Amino acid sequence: MFMRGPALSRLSAALSLAVVVAACSDSVTSTPTSPSDRHFAPTMSRVAVPTSGEHVFLMRGNVPADFTARVAAVGGSVMSSMTEIGVVVTTGLSDADATALAGSDSVAPDYVGQWIQPGEIQVAESSPPTLADATSAQPPLQAQFLPFQWNMFQINAPAAWAKKTGIPRVKVAILDSGLDPDHLDQGGAPFGVPSTIDADKSIAFVPTTSPTGPPWTDDFFHGTFVGATVTSNNFGTAGVAPNVKLIAVKVLGANGSGPVGAVIAGIYYATMAGAQVINMSLGLQVRRNDPGAQVVISAFTRAVNFAQRHGVLVVSAAGNESTNLRPRNVVELPCEAGFQLCVSATGAGNTFASYSNFGLGAIDVAAPGGDGSFSTSRWIMGPCSSHSTDPALAICKDGLHYIFATGTSASAPHVSGLGAYLDSQFGGRLGAFDLVLRIEGNADDLGPRGFDGRFGFGQINVFNTLSPRHFW
Fold first, then answer.
1. pLDDT digits (tens, 9 = 90+) for 246-291
2. 440, 224 in Cβ contact below 8 A?
3. What is the distance between the alpha carbons of residues 396 and 410, in angstroms, rounded to a whole number?
4. Among 85, 123, 309, 331, whose Cα sits 20 to 30 Å from the Cα of 160?
């Protein structure tokens, strides 16, 4: 409803199935009816494969103090040393040298894959933006496009916004393709509005290809959309948790791919950097019986459980293959690793999304992800990165455009936002276990009565979770 002109292309991703671009504007115009499609062939499978020259070491204890020097002595270098969980990621070693360095510990080649699957992109031009006075962030109830954010009403967020707010002390680490330092509703730099991003704590484990911006700049589109679902400046779209902060942890490149070791390092970093919540709207499958797979899976699980022990709530997307996650011969990372909340998707009207993965014991809760053919009343809306290097998203460069998307990528940040919003009521000191209990215990039971493999404990309810009568 916010668009005019011809459609340019179409994109579906493994965890963000499709997007359509719109701009912030006071005018409402018609949706394109005859899009012109441009197709992209996926470059990698969602099943991870070992990569040459990079290794993951899994120590029985802490990382030895001289390990970096020992790696350098044989021509390699340490990319990430996670001392407290006994995990090291290296580059430049041969398999033989890595095995010799490991000794009685374990080592395996790092795995790499397409955490977010390239597919088809559809971009529709929109009317020019009309800006309000952009001197400070707005309350979420004043967001221009809130009437079209059916997802926020479905989880009862506006009722909570009328009574409570979040606090900047609570931070959500977005492990993704980065965040946008320049979008009006995110970094806001060109517009002089407060940033939702803690730039000092943001980091890149995978370099950006954007010619401008910090190393953690989102050169894709995915991380920007995901982060703004958690929190936003609320000019165009509202985020679940007003006034909390985001930490950009860039672990994916401009095409949505990246190594498992970078994500493991991102989890560890976010925990040490003081995040209260970690969001991973991404997914990769690792075959259980691949040589070395158990090393990588175990290292990933260690990182997730390390975060939980430090009070960090970890939230991940279930994935979009309409697949029963249990039992089978692959592990869905991060969903099936360690203590966390794995989130399935619902469509408008509290239905189970047709694409969402499921599985008894795998899914913990559900949240809106959208479903069906494109409609502003069926898809999720959020900002489009102004630094995307995809030519099809060049329209987003002004920092005022928004996309519509579907997928469990959109579901997970609703839950992360709720975790941050709830933790804000306790000064950021509630802890992961209590956050999980309160989120699950106040969810709306959907599907079969009680816990089930599609909705888990149910669809999250923001107001009920934050209501004092539910602080048990």
1. 999 999 999 999 999 999 999 999 999 999 999 999 999 999 989 8
2. no
3. 19
4. 309
- 24 band by pLDDT with thresholds 50, 70 and 90: low
Q: For the segment 351-386, what is each residue's pLDDT rounded down to a tens digit?
A: 999 999 999 999 999 999 999 888 889 999 999 999
Cα separation, 57 vs 70, in Å, equals 13
Helix H or strand E encompassing 113: strand 106-114
From the list 417, 409, 381, 450, the residue with the least C-alpha distance to 155 is 417
Torsion-angle region of residue 12: left (phi > 0), alpha (psi -120 to 50) or beta? beta
Please enumerate in sequence order all residues whose Cβ is within 8 A of that of 140, keeping only pairs 6 or more positions apart, or say none. Answer: 146, 152, 157, 158, 161, 232, 234, 238, 239, 242
Pairwise CA distance, residues 160 & 240, whole Å: 10
Strand partners, 380: 405
- Residue 80 has φ and ψ, to the nearest 5°, of -145, 130
> 202-224 b/e with 16+ CB inside 10 Å = b?
bbbbbebebeebbebbbbbbbbb
Q: How many whole angstroms separate alpha carbon 213 and alpha carbon 389?
A: 12
In single-letter form, the type of residue at position 130 comes to: T
Task: Give me the pLDDT at residue 135, please.
Answer: 64
Q: CA distances (Å), 453 to each of 173, 324, 344, 446, in order? A: 27, 9, 9, 11
- Three-state DSSP class for 463? helix
Contact status, residue 249 vs residue 269, Cβ threshold 8 Å: yes
Express each pLDDT in 400-409 by its tens digit.
998 888 899 9
pLDDT single digits (tens) 195-216 = 999 999 999 999 999 999 999 9
Task: Record the tokens describing residue 318, joined without a space.
Answer: 């279930």
Residue 131: what pLDDT?
A: 62
Contacts of 452 by beta carbon, 8 Å cutoff, 6+ apart: 360
* 3 state DSSP class of 100: helix
Q: What's the pLDDT tens digit per position in 232-243?
A: 999 999 999 999
HSE of 45 in the Cβ direction (CA atoms, 13 Å)?
8
Distance of alpha carbon 221 from alpha carbon 203, whole angstroms: 17
Task: State the catalytic residues.
Answer: 176, 222, 409
Task: Find out whether 388 and 396 touch, Cβ atoms under 8 Å.
Answer: yes
Element (H, E) at 78: strand 77-82
Q: Which residues contact 100 (CB under 8 A, 6 or more apart)?
A: 74
Q: Look at strands 401-406 and 18-23 and give their pairing.
A: antiparallel
